[in-house]
Amino acid sequence: MSLINPVSNEKQNMASTSSKEVSTSCTSVSTGAHCYRTYTEVYAPILVESDTSSSSEDEFAHNVDCFNDKIVSVEDILENLATQIKSEKVSRFNINRADIWDGALRGFKRSSFDPAHTILVKFSDNTGYMESGIDTGGPKREFLELLMQHVKNRTLFEGRETEKYLTCDSVAFDNDEYFIIGRMIAVSMVHGGPGPQFISKNLFNYILCEGIFSPDTKDVCDPEIQMMLQKIKSSSSVECLRSTVEVYATMLMIAGCLCHVIRELSDKDKIVEDYLKWYFFTRNAACIQRFKEGLTTLNVLEAMKQNPSGFMKYFCFSEKKITSEIIENLFKAEFSQPGSNRRQEEVRTAAYWADYLLDIEGKTSFAEPSLEDILMFSTGVSSIPPIGFHPKPTVNFLHNESPYPIAQTCTNSLSIPIHKTYDKFKYHMNFGILNSPGFGQH
C-alpha cells in the first residue's frame, strides 16, 4: 500500500508519489500474533511529535496495512486519522457569514495552512463585528457544515441536487480548485465536520475504482446531449439507429463512440453507455485526478478503501433522517442528586424533553424548529458527523437561570428550562431555538 504524506501542502501527483510500502503477512504464528496485537492497539492514542519522524510515519502506515482487509467503522477510521492532528498548532480562519467561500478559500490557500493543525474559526457578522466566543469546537463544526453546503453549489459540480458529478471548469482548474475542494472534504471529515453527502454513487465508485459505475441519461445537464442519447435509446430498428448515429456523428466522434459497428438493435445500449462514461469520467479525468489528490489529505482517500460502503453514506445522499429517538439517545441527561427537589423537577422536565422531540418529529408548522435545528442549535451541525461528537452531547436543566434553552456548542451541551407545564416548556424551547443568535443559525 502506498501512503501519501498527510501534511503536505504542495500539489501532489498520486501516480508518482514515492511512499514506503509495509508488507505484512499473517500466515505464520509469530506474524499473526503481531497483527492481533496491532488490532487491539491501532485505535489507542498515537502520539504525534511536532516534527513528524519517519518512524511515526512507518508506524501509521503499518497500522493501516494490517487492517486493510478488515471492515472497520468509519468513526473508528476517522478517529485514527485524527491522531495526526497537532493540538498545539493552529490554522486560523476568519469567516464572514455573508461570504463563507471567500474566507474558506483564503484560509486553505494560506501558505501557513496545515491540515494537521487544529482549526480555529472566528466568525464576523454582516456588520463586520467579530462574534464573541472562543472556538473549542462549535464554531469549527458550524463552519465546516456551511463550507460543505457551499462546495455543493460550486460550478465544479453538475447534476441533480443529490447526485452530483465533477465537471470541467477551466478557470477553476487553473486555480487548482479541484484539489482544494478534495482537501476541504478530507479536512472536514477528520476535524469533526460533515461529509459532502451529494456526490453521485457512480463518481464515488469511480474514484475508488470499485463497484459499478453506470450513469443515467437523466444525469446529463446538457439538453442537446440528453436529446441525442434519448433518440439513440428510443431507436426502434437498426436502420433508425444507424440514421440517428449519422445525424450525431460529430458529437459521437468526439467521444470516441463512432467506431461502433451497428449490427443489431441492442448495440444502442453500448453506444449510450460508452458515451456516458466519456461524458462524466474520461473528459473530466484531469479534474477528477486533482480532486482525488486533494482527498489524500490526512490519508482520507486511502482510508476510504477500508470501508467503501461506510464512507459512501457520508459522501453520497442518504434518505435516512434524524429521528426523535436518535436525538434522545444522543444527549445524555445530567441530573441532580436523587431525592432532591431539583431532581424531581428535572425528571418531569426530562419527560417534557422526550415529548417535545416527538412533537417536533411530527411537526406540521413552519413556526416550529426541526430536529436538525435542535441539533444545529446544540452542537453547530445539523447532522451527526462521521467521526461522531467529541465530547459527547449532554442535556442539563436550568432551574432559575433562563426561561429559554441555552447551548454551549463547544462542549455540545444543551441546557433546557424548567417550566410547570408542557405548553410553556414547548413555547420557550421553540422561541429560543428559532431566534438564537450566532452559533446555531443557518
Automatic annotation (TrEMBL):
EC nos: 2.3.2.26
Origin superkingdom: Eukaryota
One Pfam family this sequence matches: HECT
Annotated GO biological process: protein polyubiquitination
Residues annotated as the enzyme's active site: C410 (glycyl thioester intermediate)
Family matches, as SUPFAM superfamilies: Hect, E3 ligase catalytic domain (SSF56204)
Gene3D superfamilies in alphabetical order: Hect, E3 ligase catalytic domain, Hect, E3 ligase catalytic domains
SMART domains per the UniProt record, alphabetical: HECTc
Top-level EC class: transferase
PROSITE patterns documented for this protein: HECT
Annotated segments matching region Disordered: 1-22
Catalytic activity: S-ubiquitinyl-[E2 ubiquitin-conjugating enzyme]-L-cysteine + [acceptor protein]-L-lysine = [E2 ubiquitin-conjugating enzyme]-L-cysteine + N(6)-ubiquitinyl-[acceptor protein]-L-lysine
Molecular-function annotations in GO: ubiquitin protein ligase activity
Domain HECT: 111-442
Keywords, comma-separated and alphabetical: Transferase, Ubl conjugation pathway
Name of the protein this chain belongs to: HECT-type E3 ubiquitin transferase
Organism, scientific name: Erpetoichthys calabaricus (Rope fish)
Taxonomic path: Eukaryota, Metazoa, Chordata, Craniata, Vertebrata
Gene coding for it: LOC127525817
